[in-house]
């Protein structure tokens, strides 16, 4: 009997020993987590996630359970998950963190998901990681949070303490951009430009930093690009970009984007074009304004005008419109517009999106548009192609659409 009891007692221990992946704390509080980290002299790793975030789910289901990920994080961190949204299905444990989750969002500027925060053993924030990644890359990012030379918060402190150090300003800009802290990045880039000079930024190594710093038409980075367009064109040639692409994007974001987001009525694009020609004659705004016009009419849900705007965009900027964009435009019309002219235009866009390859989602869009146009027989043929090429996770949805087509039922 004693031997049997010994065996039964060992079973839970064996189960724990065989557990792989990151071991997260449960049924705890922030104070207890900090106390444990201090006692074990470990940093704290906090996964700030939401239930609706796809990348968050991927990290939890695919990355965190991996043995090498668990070995690293369990050795160096006390690990914690905080759900940042609230749902009807939340457990009592999740509910007990509601107020703490709000505090984390406020105190640590958690605005994108997933956000991963790293605290030192004293409970002080030292690093932040925005977005997930594959195992090895994610471990490498977490290692940066253990090293004072690469920690986000430590880098920011050095930036504030050494206002005359160009190297620190550049490093801060790079770290801030990686952490999606655009406000700090812009400050650091402006300082770097002031300390290092324009010539230092007009290099292959720093051109991306210069472009990132062009946050407005009044920024120093924008003015350098404006005054050195030929040099910028040379540096961006391999990326098939130009100074005009950068400058026009900045102007559009600054002066057109807010009008679209605010849903201004009767936006006059001809007047906007005339204003840009007068105030910024060095920039060709026509290509980006055609994109903006399509976006504007999409927001306004004016589908006939959206159709005309997309056709204008294709006619004037054909090579720079991706198959994904064409498919997106076509699907928007399929879902929202019954006008025959709009549907026929969307069919043209959809067919063009297939020229680069018959992706299942693009085939599905084309089939649905054929069906909506009244061409049932060809719609079924193309939907069968989509079903054949679809991955397993998509097959049921495509099969359901195919069945509706065969029965003559609406698919929209």
Automatic annotation (TrEMBL):
This is Thioredoxin-like protein. Pfam families: Thioredoxin_2. GO terms for biological process: cell redox homeostasis; response to stress. Keywords: Redox-active center, Signal. Residues 1-17 form the signal peptide. Transmembrane segments: none annotated. It comes from Sphingobacterium allocomposti. Residues 15-147 form the Thioredoxin domain. InterPro entries: Thioredoxin-like_fold, Thioredoxin-like_sf, Thioredoxin_CS, Thioredoxin_domain, TPR-like_helical_dom_sf. SUPFAM superfamilies: Thioredoxin-like, TPR-like. GO terms for molecular function: protein-disulfide reductase activity. It comes from the Bacteria.
């Amino acid at each position: 009997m004693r031997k049997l009891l010994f065996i039964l007692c060992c079973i839970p221990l064996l189960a724990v020993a065989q557990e792989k992946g990151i071991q997260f704390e449960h049924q705890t509080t922030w104070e207890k987590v900090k106390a444990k980290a201090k006692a074990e002299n470990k940093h704290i790793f906090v996964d700030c996630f939401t239930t609706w975030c796809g990348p968050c789910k991927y990290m939890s289901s695919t990355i965190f359970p991996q043995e090498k990920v668990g070995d690293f994080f369990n050795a160096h961190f006390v690990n914690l998950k905080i759900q940042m949204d609230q749902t009807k299905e939340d457990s009592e444990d999740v509910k007990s963190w509601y107020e703490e989750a709000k505090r984390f969002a406020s105190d640590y500027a958690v605005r994108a998901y997933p956000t991963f925060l790293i605290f030192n053993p004293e409970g002080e924030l030292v690093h932040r990681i925005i977005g997930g990644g594959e195992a090895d890359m994610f471990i490498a990012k977490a290692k940066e949070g253990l090293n004072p030379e690469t920690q986000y918060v430590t880098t920011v402190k050095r930036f504030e303490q050494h206002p005359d150090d160009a190297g620190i300003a550049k490093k801060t800009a790079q770290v801030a951009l990686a952490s999606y802290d655009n406000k700090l990045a812009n400050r650091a880039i402006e300082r770097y430009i002031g300390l290092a000079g324009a010539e230092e930024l007009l290099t292959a190594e720093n051109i991306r930093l210069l472009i990132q710093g062009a946050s407005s038409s009044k920024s120093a980075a924008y003015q350098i690009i404006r005054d050195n367009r030929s040099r910028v064109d040379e540096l961006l040639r391999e990326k098939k970009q130009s100074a005009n692409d950068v400058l026009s994007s900045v102007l559009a974001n600054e002066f057109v984007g807010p009008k679209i987001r605010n849903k201004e009525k009767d936006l006059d694009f001809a007047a906007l074009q005339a204003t840009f020609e007068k105030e910024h004659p060095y920039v060709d705004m026509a290509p980006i304004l055609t994109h903006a016009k399509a976006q504007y009419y999409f927001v306004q849900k004016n589908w006939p005008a959206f159709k005309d705007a997309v056709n204008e965009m294709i006619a004037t900027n054909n090579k720079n419109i991706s198959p994904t964009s064409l498919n997106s435009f076509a699907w928007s019309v399929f879902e929202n517009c019954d006008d025959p002219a709009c549907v026929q235009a969307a069919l043209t866009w959809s067919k063009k999106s297939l020229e680069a390859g018959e992706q299942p989602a693009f085939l599905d869009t084309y089939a649905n548009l054929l069906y909506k146009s009244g061409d049932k027989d060809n719609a079924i043929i193309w939907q069968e192609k989509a079903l054949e090429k679809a991955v397993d996770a998509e097959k049921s949805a495509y099969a359901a659409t195919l069945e509706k087509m065969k029965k003559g039922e609406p698919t929209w």
